[in-house]
Specification:
The complex is a heterodimer. Chain A is built from 10 helices and 2 strands, in the order H-H-H-H-H-H-H-E-E-H-H-H. A two-stranded antiparallel sheet of chain A has the order 1-2. In chain B, helix 3 crosses helix 4. Chain B has one domain. Classes of the chains: A mainly alpha, B mainly alpha. The interface between A and B is large, with 56 and 55 residues.
Chain lengths: 226, 192
Protein backbone atom coordinates (compact mmCIF):
# COMPACT_ATOMS: atom_id res chain seq x y z
CA UNK A 1 0.00 0.00 0.00
CA UNK A 2 1.57 3.30 -1.00
CA UNK A 3 1.41 6.36 1.21
CA UNK A 4 -1.46 7.95 -0.74
CA UNK A 5 -3.69 4.91 -0.39
CA UNK A 6 -2.64 4.67 3.26
CA UNK A 7 -4.09 8.17 3.88
CA UNK A 8 -7.44 7.11 2.45
CA UNK A 9 -7.52 3.85 4.43
CA UNK A 10 -6.61 5.85 7.54
CA UNK A 11 -9.48 8.31 7.04
CA UNK A 12 -12.15 5.77 6.17
CA UNK A 13 -11.32 2.93 8.58
CA UNK A 14 -8.55 3.47 11.08
CA UNK A 15 -9.29 7.03 12.18
CA UNK A 16 -12.82 7.47 10.88
CA UNK A 17 -13.63 11.03 12.03
CA UNK A 18 -17.17 10.26 13.20
CA UNK A 19 -17.13 6.64 14.32
CA UNK A 20 -13.67 6.52 15.89
CA UNK A 21 -12.56 10.09 16.62
CA UNK A 22 -16.08 11.41 17.40
CA UNK A 23 -15.46 14.74 15.68
CA UNK A 24 -18.11 16.88 14.01
CA UNK A 25 -20.98 15.62 16.13
CA UNK A 26 -23.30 18.57 15.40
CA UNK A 27 -23.84 17.83 11.68
CA UNK A 28 -23.76 14.08 12.34
CA UNK A 29 -26.76 14.36 14.62
CA UNK A 30 -28.57 17.16 12.84
CA UNK A 31 -28.64 16.36 9.13
CA UNK A 32 -28.90 12.56 9.15
CA UNK A 33 -32.70 12.62 8.88
CA UNK A 34 -32.33 10.88 5.52
CA UNK A 35 -29.55 9.09 3.68
CA UNK A 36 -29.61 11.71 0.92
CA UNK A 37 -29.15 14.59 3.37
CA UNK A 38 -26.33 12.76 5.15
CA UNK A 39 -24.62 12.09 1.82
CA UNK A 40 -25.05 15.72 0.69
CA UNK A 41 -23.60 17.06 3.94
CA UNK A 42 -20.72 14.58 3.73
CA UNK A 43 -19.82 15.63 0.19
CA UNK A 44 -20.05 19.37 0.99
CA UNK A 45 -17.74 18.90 3.96
CA UNK A 46 -15.38 16.72 1.91
CA UNK A 47 -15.00 19.41 -0.76
CA UNK A 48 -14.17 22.03 1.88
CA UNK A 49 -11.80 19.65 3.63
CA UNK A 50 -9.81 18.68 0.52
CA UNK A 51 -9.39 22.25 -0.72
CA UNK A 52 -8.65 23.70 2.74
CA UNK A 53 -6.07 20.98 3.40
CA UNK A 54 -4.35 21.77 0.09
CA UNK A 55 -4.35 25.54 0.59
CA UNK A 56 -3.20 25.37 4.21
CA UNK A 57 -0.49 22.89 3.33
CA UNK A 58 0.72 25.07 0.44
CA UNK A 59 0.82 28.13 2.74
CA UNK A 60 2.27 26.31 5.74
CA UNK A 61 5.66 28.06 5.47
CA UNK A 62 4.11 31.50 4.95
CA UNK A 63 1.67 31.56 7.88
CA UNK A 64 3.39 32.60 11.14
CA UNK A 65 2.76 30.22 14.04
CA UNK A 66 1.10 32.77 16.33
CA UNK A 67 -1.70 33.69 13.92
CA UNK A 68 -2.20 30.30 12.31
CA UNK A 69 -5.64 29.56 13.79
CA UNK A 70 -7.26 32.84 12.65
CA UNK A 71 -5.62 32.34 9.26
CA UNK A 72 -7.01 28.79 8.98
CA UNK A 73 -10.47 30.01 10.00
CA UNK A 74 -10.47 32.69 7.29
CA UNK A 75 -9.44 30.14 4.64
CA UNK A 76 -12.06 27.62 5.77
CA UNK A 77 -14.79 30.27 6.07
CA UNK A 78 -14.10 31.52 2.53
CA UNK A 79 -14.33 27.97 1.14
CA UNK A 80 -17.54 27.31 3.07
CA UNK A 81 -19.06 30.49 1.64
CA UNK A 82 -18.17 29.31 -1.88
CA UNK A 83 -19.72 25.89 -1.24
CA UNK A 84 -22.81 27.54 0.27
CA UNK A 85 -23.33 29.80 -2.75
CA UNK A 86 -22.74 26.95 -5.22
CA UNK A 87 -25.26 24.66 -3.47
CA UNK A 88 -27.77 27.49 -3.30
CA UNK A 89 -27.44 28.10 -7.03
CA UNK A 90 -27.24 24.56 -8.41
CA UNK A 91 -28.75 22.18 -5.78
CA UNK A 92 -31.50 24.29 -4.14
CA UNK A 93 -33.25 21.20 -2.70
CA UNK A 94 -30.14 20.20 -0.74
CA UNK A 95 -29.54 23.82 0.29
CA UNK A 96 -32.98 24.12 1.88
CA UNK A 97 -32.72 20.67 3.50
CA UNK A 98 -29.36 21.40 5.15
CA UNK A 99 -30.13 25.06 5.90
CA UNK A 100 -27.96 26.59 8.57
CA UNK A 101 -25.71 23.52 8.81
CA UNK A 102 -23.90 24.47 5.57
CA UNK A 103 -22.40 27.71 6.97
CA UNK A 104 -21.74 25.83 10.21
CA UNK A 105 -19.22 23.61 8.38
CA UNK A 106 -16.79 26.39 9.43
CA UNK A 107 -16.89 25.30 13.06
CA UNK A 108 -16.73 21.58 12.24
CA UNK A 109 -13.88 20.24 14.39
CA UNK A 110 -12.77 17.85 11.63
CA UNK A 111 -11.63 20.62 9.29
CA UNK A 112 -9.60 22.70 11.75
CA UNK A 113 -8.42 19.48 13.37
CA UNK A 114 -6.97 18.11 10.12
CA UNK A 115 -5.45 21.51 9.27
CA UNK A 116 -3.68 21.61 12.61
CA UNK A 117 -2.77 17.93 12.91
CA UNK A 118 -1.88 17.05 9.32
CA UNK A 119 -1.98 19.74 6.63
CA UNK A 120 0.28 22.15 8.52
CA UNK A 121 3.04 19.52 8.50
CA UNK A 122 2.72 17.77 5.12
CA UNK A 123 2.95 18.35 1.38
CA UNK A 124 -0.13 19.60 -0.52
CA UNK A 125 -0.69 16.34 -2.45
CA UNK A 126 -0.53 14.15 0.67
CA UNK A 127 -2.79 16.63 2.47
CA UNK A 128 -5.29 16.44 -0.38
CA UNK A 129 -5.35 12.64 -0.05
CA UNK A 130 -5.77 13.03 3.71
CA UNK A 131 -8.75 15.30 2.97
CA UNK A 132 -10.21 12.73 0.56
CA UNK A 133 -9.80 9.95 3.16
CA UNK A 134 -11.26 11.92 6.06
CA UNK A 135 -14.02 13.32 3.85
CA UNK A 136 -14.93 9.85 2.58
CA UNK A 137 -14.95 8.50 6.13
CA UNK A 138 -17.25 11.35 7.19
CA UNK A 139 -19.54 10.87 4.17
CA UNK A 140 -19.80 7.10 4.71
CA UNK A 141 -20.58 7.49 8.42
CA UNK A 142 -23.23 10.15 7.76
CA UNK A 143 -24.82 8.15 4.96
CA UNK A 144 -25.01 5.03 7.15
CA UNK A 145 -26.52 6.95 10.08
CA UNK A 146 -28.96 8.64 7.68
CA UNK A 147 -29.88 5.31 6.12
CA UNK A 148 -30.65 3.74 9.52
CA UNK A 149 -32.76 6.70 10.63
CA UNK A 150 -34.58 6.98 7.31
CA UNK A 151 -35.30 3.24 7.18
CA UNK A 152 -36.67 3.10 10.74
CA UNK A 153 -38.34 6.49 10.75
CA UNK A 154 -39.86 6.70 7.28
CA UNK A 155 -39.54 3.18 5.84
CA UNK A 156 -37.52 4.41 2.88
CA UNK A 157 -33.90 4.32 1.69
CA UNK A 158 -32.60 7.21 -0.45
CA UNK A 159 -36.27 8.14 -0.92
CA UNK A 160 -37.35 4.72 -2.28
CA UNK A 161 -40.10 2.92 -0.37
CA UNK A 162 -38.71 -0.25 1.30
CA UNK A 163 -41.21 -1.09 4.03
CA UNK A 164 -44.78 -1.30 2.61
CA UNK A 165 -46.86 1.79 3.36
CA UNK A 166 -49.41 -0.32 5.28
CA UNK A 167 -46.87 -0.69 8.13
CA UNK A 168 -46.43 2.51 10.12
CA UNK A 169 -42.76 3.52 10.48
CA UNK A 170 -41.32 4.57 13.87
CA UNK A 171 -41.55 8.30 13.26
CA UNK A 172 -39.42 9.32 16.23
CA UNK A 173 -36.25 8.14 14.49
CA UNK A 174 -36.32 11.01 12.02
CA UNK A 175 -37.07 13.49 14.81
CA UNK A 176 -34.44 14.90 17.19
CA UNK A 177 -34.43 12.10 19.84
CA UNK A 178 -33.82 9.48 17.13
CA UNK A 179 -30.47 11.08 16.32
CA UNK A 180 -29.18 10.61 19.87
CA UNK A 181 -30.59 7.06 20.03
CA UNK A 182 -29.07 5.85 16.76
CA UNK A 183 -25.68 7.30 17.67
CA UNK A 184 -25.84 5.80 21.17
CA UNK A 185 -26.48 2.36 19.67
CA UNK A 186 -23.72 2.77 17.07
CA UNK A 187 -21.21 3.60 19.82
CA UNK A 188 -22.55 0.75 22.00
CA UNK A 189 -22.03 -1.70 19.13
CA UNK A 190 -18.47 -0.41 18.66
CA UNK A 191 -17.91 -0.87 22.42
CA UNK A 192 -19.32 -4.39 22.33
CA UNK A 193 -16.99 -5.30 19.46
CA UNK A 194 -14.21 -3.66 21.49
CA UNK A 195 -13.31 -1.26 18.71
CA UNK A 196 -11.62 1.57 20.51
CA UNK A 197 -13.35 4.90 19.95
CA UNK A 198 -12.82 8.30 21.50
CA UNK A 199 -16.48 8.47 22.55
CA UNK A 200 -15.86 7.52 26.14
CA UNK A 201 -12.99 9.96 26.60
CA UNK A 202 -15.24 12.60 25.17
CA UNK A 203 -17.87 12.39 27.91
CA UNK A 204 -15.15 12.42 30.55
CA UNK A 205 -14.59 16.13 29.94
CA UNK A 206 -11.07 16.57 28.64
CA UNK A 207 -11.76 15.29 25.18
CA UNK A 208 -9.40 17.58 23.28
CA UNK A 209 -12.07 17.97 20.60
CA UNK A 210 -10.78 21.43 19.92
CA UNK A 211 -7.48 23.07 20.71
CA UNK A 212 -9.10 25.31 23.30
CA UNK A 213 -10.91 22.56 25.23
CA UNK A 214 -7.58 21.09 26.23
CA UNK A 215 -6.41 24.39 27.62
CA UNK A 216 -9.60 24.86 29.63
CA UNK A 217 -9.40 21.37 31.11
CA UNK A 218 -5.74 21.77 31.88
CA UNK A 219 -6.31 24.98 33.82
CA UNK A 220 -9.26 23.48 35.64
CA UNK A 221 -7.05 20.61 36.75
CA UNK A 222 -4.45 23.05 38.04
CA UNK A 223 -7.06 24.89 40.09
CA UNK A 224 -8.22 21.68 41.68
CA UNK A 225 -4.65 20.83 42.64
CA UNK A 226 -4.32 24.08 44.59
CA UNK B 1 -43.40 42.75 24.96
CA UNK B 2 -45.50 39.62 24.50
CA UNK B 3 -43.64 38.91 21.28
CA UNK B 4 -40.26 39.13 23.01
CA UNK B 5 -41.34 36.70 25.74
CA UNK B 6 -42.56 34.38 23.01
CA UNK B 7 -39.14 34.53 21.34
CA UNK B 8 -37.40 33.61 24.60
CA UNK B 9 -39.77 30.69 25.34
CA UNK B 10 -39.57 29.39 21.80
CA UNK B 11 -35.77 29.57 21.71
CA UNK B 12 -35.21 28.14 25.20
CA UNK B 13 -37.79 25.36 25.27
CA UNK B 14 -39.48 24.62 21.94
CA UNK B 15 -36.45 24.89 19.64
CA UNK B 16 -33.91 24.01 22.31
CA UNK B 17 -30.49 24.67 20.85
CA UNK B 18 -28.92 21.39 21.98
CA UNK B 19 -31.80 18.96 22.09
CA UNK B 20 -33.56 19.87 18.89
CA UNK B 21 -31.01 21.84 16.84
CA UNK B 22 -27.88 19.89 17.86
CA UNK B 23 -25.63 22.92 18.26
CA UNK B 24 -22.89 22.86 20.89
CA UNK B 25 -23.02 19.07 21.28
CA UNK B 26 -19.28 18.90 21.93
CA UNK B 27 -19.33 20.85 25.18
CA UNK B 28 -22.79 19.50 26.05
CA UNK B 29 -21.41 15.96 26.22
CA UNK B 30 -17.96 16.91 27.49
CA UNK B 31 -18.61 19.34 30.34
CA UNK B 32 -21.87 17.86 31.69
CA UNK B 33 -19.95 15.53 34.00
CA UNK B 34 -20.13 17.99 36.89
CA UNK B 35 -23.06 20.21 37.75
CA UNK B 36 -20.87 23.06 38.96
CA UNK B 37 -18.81 23.23 35.77
CA UNK B 38 -22.00 22.96 33.71
CA UNK B 39 -23.57 25.91 35.49
CA UNK B 40 -20.42 28.04 35.03
CA UNK B 41 -20.22 27.16 31.35
CA UNK B 42 -23.92 27.99 31.04
CA UNK B 43 -23.28 31.39 32.60
CA UNK B 44 -20.43 32.08 30.21
CA UNK B 45 -22.53 30.97 27.23
CA UNK B 46 -25.43 33.27 28.22
CA UNK B 47 -22.99 36.16 28.51
CA UNK B 48 -21.21 35.56 25.20
CA UNK B 49 -24.21 34.61 23.03
CA UNK B 50 -26.23 37.63 24.16
CA UNK B 51 -23.37 40.03 23.38
CA UNK B 52 -22.48 38.22 20.14
CA UNK B 53 -26.08 38.41 18.88
CA UNK B 54 -26.18 42.13 19.56
CA UNK B 55 -22.82 42.83 17.88
CA UNK B 56 -23.56 40.56 14.90
CA UNK B 57 -26.90 42.24 14.36
CA UNK B 58 -25.46 45.79 14.50
CA UNK B 59 -22.67 44.83 12.14
CA UNK B 60 -25.03 43.15 9.70
CA UNK B 61 -27.61 45.96 9.65
CA UNK B 62 -25.29 48.95 9.61
CA UNK B 63 -22.20 47.73 7.78
CA UNK B 64 -22.85 44.65 5.67
CA UNK B 65 -26.30 45.45 4.27
CA UNK B 66 -25.41 49.02 3.15
CA UNK B 67 -22.23 47.70 1.48
CA UNK B 68 -24.07 44.71 -0.09
CA UNK B 69 -21.71 42.27 1.58
CA UNK B 70 -24.39 39.94 2.98
CA UNK B 71 -22.73 36.93 1.39
CA UNK B 72 -19.67 37.42 3.62
CA UNK B 73 -21.69 36.91 6.78
CA UNK B 74 -20.16 33.53 7.72
CA UNK B 75 -16.59 34.85 7.53
CA UNK B 76 -17.38 38.12 9.29
CA UNK B 77 -19.42 36.51 12.09
CA UNK B 78 -16.86 33.84 12.95
CA UNK B 79 -14.05 36.41 13.14
CA UNK B 80 -16.19 38.82 15.16
CA UNK B 81 -17.11 36.06 17.60
CA UNK B 82 -13.49 34.98 18.04
CA UNK B 83 -12.34 38.57 18.60
CA UNK B 84 -15.29 39.28 20.88
CA UNK B 85 -14.57 36.33 23.14
CA UNK B 86 -10.97 37.48 23.46
CA UNK B 87 -12.08 41.01 24.32
CA UNK B 88 -14.68 39.85 26.83
CA UNK B 89 -12.01 37.73 28.47
CA UNK B 90 -9.55 40.63 28.75
CA UNK B 91 -12.28 43.02 29.90
CA UNK B 92 -13.46 40.68 32.66
CA UNK B 93 -9.91 40.01 33.78
CA UNK B 94 -9.33 43.74 34.30
CA UNK B 95 -12.68 44.87 35.66
CA UNK B 96 -14.24 42.04 37.61
CA UNK B 97 -11.83 39.31 38.68
CA UNK B 98 -14.63 37.51 40.55
CA UNK B 99 -16.65 36.82 37.39
CA UNK B 100 -13.44 36.04 35.54
CA UNK B 101 -12.54 33.44 38.14
CA UNK B 102 -15.93 31.80 37.69
CA UNK B 103 -16.26 31.94 33.90
CA UNK B 104 -12.70 32.53 32.71
CA UNK B 105 -11.60 29.05 31.74
CA UNK B 106 -14.79 28.44 29.81
CA UNK B 107 -14.57 31.52 27.63
CA UNK B 108 -12.02 30.19 25.10
CA UNK B 109 -14.11 27.02 24.83
CA UNK B 110 -17.00 29.06 23.54
CA UNK B 111 -15.24 30.40 20.44
CA UNK B 112 -15.54 27.00 18.82
CA UNK B 113 -19.03 26.41 20.18
CA UNK B 114 -21.18 26.27 17.08
CA UNK B 115 -24.20 27.55 19.01
CA UNK B 116 -22.78 31.10 18.98
CA UNK B 117 -22.32 31.20 15.21
CA UNK B 118 -25.60 29.32 14.78
CA UNK B 119 -27.60 31.96 16.67
CA UNK B 120 -25.96 34.84 14.80
CA UNK B 121 -26.83 33.20 11.47
CA UNK B 122 -30.41 32.22 12.42
CA UNK B 123 -31.10 35.76 13.62
CA UNK B 124 -30.20 37.03 10.16
CA UNK B 125 -32.22 34.27 8.50
CA UNK B 126 -35.31 35.07 10.60
CA UNK B 127 -34.85 38.79 9.88
CA UNK B 128 -34.92 39.74 13.56
CA UNK B 129 -34.31 43.38 14.49
CA UNK B 130 -31.80 44.43 17.15
CA UNK B 131 -34.01 43.89 20.22
CA UNK B 132 -35.38 40.61 18.89
CA UNK B 133 -31.85 39.32 18.15
CA UNK B 134 -30.69 40.07 21.67
CA UNK B 135 -33.70 38.32 23.16
CA UNK B 136 -33.36 35.36 20.78
CA UNK B 137 -29.67 35.03 21.73
CA UNK B 138 -30.49 35.22 25.42
CA UNK B 139 -33.28 32.65 25.08
CA UNK B 140 -31.07 30.23 23.17
CA UNK B 141 -28.33 30.48 25.78
CA UNK B 142 -30.81 29.94 28.61
CA UNK B 143 -32.02 26.83 26.78
CA UNK B 144 -28.42 25.60 26.50
CA UNK B 145 -27.78 26.19 30.21
CA UNK B 146 -31.01 24.43 31.13
CA UNK B 147 -30.18 21.40 28.99
CA UNK B 148 -26.57 21.03 30.17
CA UNK B 149 -27.49 21.42 33.86
CA UNK B 150 -30.32 18.89 33.54
CA UNK B 151 -27.99 16.41 31.84
CA UNK B 152 -25.37 16.95 34.56
CA UNK B 153 -28.03 16.12 37.15
CA UNK B 154 -29.05 12.96 35.30
CA UNK B 155 -25.43 11.88 34.91
CA UNK B 156 -24.68 12.15 38.62
CA UNK B 157 -27.43 9.53 39.13
CA UNK B 158 -26.34 7.32 36.24
CA UNK B 159 -22.90 6.81 37.74
CA UNK B 160 -24.37 4.73 40.55
CA UNK B 161 -26.43 2.40 38.35
CA UNK B 162 -25.49 -1.04 36.98
CA UNK B 163 -25.45 -0.45 33.23
CA UNK B 164 -24.65 -3.17 30.64
CA UNK B 165 -20.96 -2.88 29.80
CA UNK B 166 -21.22 -1.74 26.14
CA UNK B 167 -23.55 1.09 27.16
CA UNK B 168 -21.28 2.53 29.84
CA UNK B 169 -19.77 5.93 29.09
CA UNK B 170 -20.85 7.74 25.96
CA UNK B 171 -23.86 5.61 24.86
CA UNK B 172 -25.82 5.97 28.12
CA UNK B 173 -25.15 9.73 28.13
CA UNK B 174 -26.53 9.98 24.59
CA UNK B 175 -29.55 7.86 25.52
CA UNK B 176 -30.21 10.21 28.46
CA UNK B 177 -30.00 13.10 26.02
CA UNK B 178 -32.47 11.27 23.75
CA UNK B 179 -34.97 10.91 26.60
CA UNK B 180 -34.53 14.59 27.51
CA UNK B 181 -35.08 15.45 23.87
CA UNK B 182 -38.35 13.48 23.87
CA UNK B 183 -39.42 15.39 26.99
CA UNK B 184 -38.56 18.70 25.32
CA UNK B 185 -40.63 17.72 22.27
CA UNK B 186 -43.62 18.05 24.59
CA UNK B 187 -43.00 21.82 24.70
CA UNK B 188 -43.91 22.08 21.02
CA UNK B 189 -47.50 21.69 22.24
CA UNK B 190 -47.25 25.10 23.94
CA UNK B 191 -49.78 27.30 22.18
CA UNK B 192 -47.99 30.49 21.19
Amino acid sequence: MNKYMERIYNGVIKENPVLVLMLGMCPTLAVTTSATNGFGMGVSTMVVLIVSNMIISALRKLIPGEVRLPAYIVIVASLVTIVELVTQAYIPALYSALGIYIPLIVVNCIILGRAEAYASKSTPILSAFDGIGMGLGFTIALTIAGLIREFLGAGTAFGAQIIPKSIDPIGIFIKAPGAFMVLAFIVAVMNALSIKTRANDMVEGCDGCCATCNKACHEEGKEENK
Amino acid sequence: MKELIMIIVSMALINNVVLSQFLGICSFLGVSKQLKASASLGGAVIFVITIASAVANLLYTFVMVPLHLEYLKTIVFILVIAALVQMVEMFLKKTSPAIYQALGIFLPLITTNCAVLGVALTNVQDEYNFIQSVFAGFGTAVGYTLAICLLAGVRSRIDEEAIPAPFRGAPIVMLSAALMSIAFMGFSGLAL
